[in-house]
Amino acid sequence: MTCSMIRRTGATLRMGFVAFVTLSGFAFHIGAAAAQQVTVSMVGGTYGDVVEASIVKPLEVAKLKVTSAIEPHPVRLTKLVTERGQPGSYDVVQFPDYFMYQANAYGLLQELDSSRIKAWNGIEPAFRRPYDVPHIFSAAVIVYDPARVSPAPTSFAVFWDPKYKGRVGALDFMFPQWLWMASTQVGNTTNHDFDKGWEKLKALKDAGLQTFPTQEALDSAMKSGEVWLSLNYRARAVQLAKAGMSVKTVVPKEGAWPVSFSFAIPMNAQHKDAAYTFLNAVLAPQAQLAAAEKIYYAPVVAGTKLPPELESLVDFTPDEVKRFVNVDFAYVAKNTPAWQQRWEEQIK
Question: Whole-structure pTM over 0.85, yes or no?
Answer without folding.
Answer: yes
